[in-house]
Structures
1.
Amino acid sequence: MALPPGPRAPGIVNLLRFARRPLERLRAWRERYGDVVRVKLTGFGTGVYVADPDAIRELFTGEQSDLRAGEANSFMAPVLGAHSVLVLDGPEHMRQRKLLLPPFGGSRVAAFREVIREVAEREVAGWREGSTLVLRQRMRALTFEVICRAVFGVTESARVERLRELLGAVIDSSPIYMITPLARADLGPLSPGRRFARRLRAADEALYEEIRRRREQPDLEQRGDVLSLLLRARDEQGAAMSDGELRDELFTMLGAGHETTATALAFAFDLLLRHPAALARLREELERGEDDAYLDAVVKETLRLRPVIDAAERTLTQPRVVAGFELPAGVKVYPGIALVHMREDLYPRAHEFRPERFADAGAESYSWLPFGGGIRRCIGAALAQAEMAEVLRAIVPRVELRPLRERPDPVVLRGITLAPKHGVRVVVERVLQPPGSPSEGRGRKAAEVAA
Ligand code: HEM
């Protein structure tokens, strides 16, 4: 079995090059080695990137029993928990996934838009002329609150702040503790491992308390937040989710859904600010308020050009033919999200930000892949896109921002996501609508208020 061609450099060299400029590195590998590239990355083992949409379709829709995705995520289990849909495979994964999918369906997400708009309007109302913002940080605060309200169903601000403090303390410091078991070792009362365990316990207690409160809430049957829906959900055997499962999935949704969406939003602003014509067209459409075609296209084009996750990941448990190569068991296959998005045959002038490419036609399933695919496709895809659209709708008409850097933020690897190196720093040039003004927020009305 011959593995596909790929760079011969040691794994650590590949990893360092990749982490520094992931998109450029992927492009260079594909140009040199083709649509199927073998890469050794220290800490991740040998993987095979696939840039061919047909081969990716086969991976996402073909036989799944010899593909594992949870196994590759198992390093997250110490924080997300053993029941997390992200770390499970096989029937156990399917059980969690079937329980989690309905609360994230189209009609549910439509109901969350109002909550998102409120949170975003409150955020932008605090922005003052002349102030400097790191947009990725502001977006993280915002998407955290959206998860608290829409997913956890917690709206009381003191409780939101408490969760922000306790869960934030774990989420912010978790990558190092997830990746290095030694960092988690309890080496005495002052050791980092002991401190992390304490923080994790405090976060768990807060989540279990929310679960307990919700179970006792008299209006549980009428509530539409994800936690309430999960409390009412039953699996195929009629069994409800245990508190442990609920805790793990709440943590998972926060871990998978908060930073990713915030990063995607920061990228959206960075791209819009570098493309004044696109920004003007978006403003115009939002002012007209007739439809969201261009707004949705901006979201899609941002996720194409700046995918937050560069590749999905599947580990082979059996030999399998992938894109014509017979790969042995144990190899990781990476359906190359970013690689597909860079293909000139699918996206002419692929390196350019051109939302209009999505304005008339939708996105094709196997050429637009920011959320992966098949039985592991992102559960929060509709929520994330709604969130991006509503945040842009709330913020773009209200402020003029000026980027502090001359050129777009370089894309770097942060943990397992691609992120803007400097977090997208901007100055608030002009507030177009005074903070605290009526928050109808949509279309012509908002423009008139602003004028
Ligand atoms: C722009 C924001 C987001 C991006 C780019 C993103 C991307 C992804 C990707 C690429 C995967 C792996 C798919 C695969 O392996 O085929 C994934 C899985 C997942 N995402 Fe997201 N995601 C985002 C937001 C969210 C949100 C808001 C939530 C929930 C609140 C969420 C929850 C999940 C979960 C639970 C999984 C695991 C699904 C499974 O293993 O069955 N994500 N996401």
2.
Amino acid sequence: MAKLRIGIIGAGCRGIFSVGALFSTDFKERAEVVALADVNRTRAEAGREFLRIDADIHDDPLALVSRKDVDAVVVTSLDCLHEQHCLAAFKHGKHVFVDKPLAITGEGCLRILAARRKAGTMLYMGFNLRHDVVLARLKEMAGKGKFGDILSVHAIEHYDGGRTYMSRWNRLKKYSGGLFIHKGSHDFDIINWLMAPARPVRVSCFANVSSFKAERLPFTPRKGIRPGPTCTRCSYRDVCPDKASSEDMARGWPAAMKDSYLKMWNGTAAKADGYQKDLCMYLSDKDTHDQGIALVEYDNGATAAHAEYFATSLNNRRFMIEGSLGHVEADLHESTIEFRPRWSSERASYKLTRPEGDHGGADTVMCGEFLDCVRNGRTPRATGADGAWSVAIGQACELARAEQRVVKISEVLDIKSLLLKSGV
Ligand SMILES: NC(=O)c1ccc[n+]([C@@H]2O[C@H](COP(=O)([O-])OP(=O)(O)OC[C@H]3O[C@@H](n4cnc5c(N)ncnc54)[C@H](O)[C@@H]3O)[C@@H](O)[C@H]2O)c1
């Protein structure tokens, strides 16, 4: 059987070390990465070397999407570029795998869905959390009615790695849409999945920068010696517990990966585009939050809360469901689900085995599903419409936060149009 020929737009961390690595190793019998596109050629070359592939490199994503020998395009560029890269790929009749978020606005998502419809190809939404062993089991149990009707969901994410958002492009809404889109779209998607067929209706939200600001520097600067501007150049790098230069990030990694990572982000690559990954997270300019809480109401009266914390030493997501038949807690770090039936003191506990691989093995399952879906015309576990709903919640949160009011989903997403344009 012929391999699926893949072109990747955005040869950064996700494009190379996660998705690109999976398609070129685990799935090399079924797929081949034939082209990489990135505005930074040095970065793409280092990525290609890491993947040990023979792919062509394009500075212009349009050159990649117009290649006849590319069947499918993986979009792992910055969030704000997903729309233009998906539209270009569909224009040339390619299948598309787009990492979350689908776009950074509800309108942008609808334009992508319209383009997919016209192309008649596959839009695969890269929501790896749907393939997490714990959440997949939780959904299966919910689908079987084990918890009864779902009345409320609480999701909490603690993400230590989120501090580095404050050092990178993610910290600015013009690139990421805001962290309720960039990061929260994952969690809103899981909540929507659990709540289905109910749909989100309105949102309120509170979020702030509480930790990553000058007055909370985790050391006392000496008089006249200013910290930053990057960890690499900072006079306090030996005392700062949050230092995040490329060397710090790659410490302890396998040699080949570390070597490629440094080539991708330091030296010639950094000089070419000035992309800095290690701005001082306390002093950087930012318009996103480091902690926040969103509330969502669904059209059946169910409610949801999602909280995200990026100043923490924890790395965990927990989901709690209040069902008409009882209370459930899923803990991704512990890989556990605990169900406490109503009107009973019993509890049922499940400890799941987590496979190896990025994102608790979920990336591998997701990339395998993408290949199956393209090959067999199967409907993906997460569709473009799912991507649009979660972006709409995130966008509504950002608006609710900015304007200090309750925002209706219909203000940011033309729902009728979505129902018309949705599909595989
Ligand atoms: N599913 C997940 O859990 C997950 C995790 C991390 C990142 N992501 C997503 O993956 C995407 C990439 O994130 P990342 O962390 O790898 O970022 P990154 O900064 O490491 O990589 C982004 C790459 O895009 C390139 N780029 C910038 N402008 C471009 C353009 N006009 N055309 C082509 N390439 C361009 C950059 O040079 C860089 O190599 C984002 O959308 C992010 O939200 C998803």
